[in-house]
Amino acid sequence: MKLIFLDIDGVLNYENTKASAPSGCMGIDDKLVTKLAQIVEETDTRIILTSDWKIGWEEFDFCCSEDAKYLNRKLKKHGLKITSKTYDDHVYDTYFEDRGKGIHKFLERVQNVEAYVVIDDHTFTDFDDEIRKNLVLTDYRIGLSDSDVEKAINILNTERKDNNV
User: Fold this and answer.
1) Which helix (H) or strand (E) holds 136?
2) Least C-beta-crowded within 10 Å: which of 63, 76, 79, 111?
3) In this structure, are residues 108 and 124 in contact, taking their beta carbons and an 8 Å threshold?
């Protein structure tokens, strides 16, 4: 199994995104979702939500916040869906020091992970060397770029010599 640990803000939207989420916060840019869809299509990857958007996201749409339902609709429009989310101790992580822990906790409880990529516009202080080598760091001013897509595909499609991700 291959996984994308996905942030939303600065990845699927950028400083000039016009769309708004139901809450009035910045929405999702369809052209950036198309780029994510390219990664998923070329790598047969599952999406795991790491973004603060996960606060209102649940596996079943009827349990989701309006913003999470909006996110689900935007992804579904491009044939995508979120499989799960990480659980961090500090979801609102002002000091950027907990997202890596959530990723590691998720990887510890999931079997048969062949490869993973973390797509985010921030580097968190708890991103260790393992996470950093699997990180695609986007520029929040432009969101997911073509070169980010290429890097993610390369990480996900590179065979690992060991099964310990």
Assistant:
1) strand 135-137
2) 111
3) no
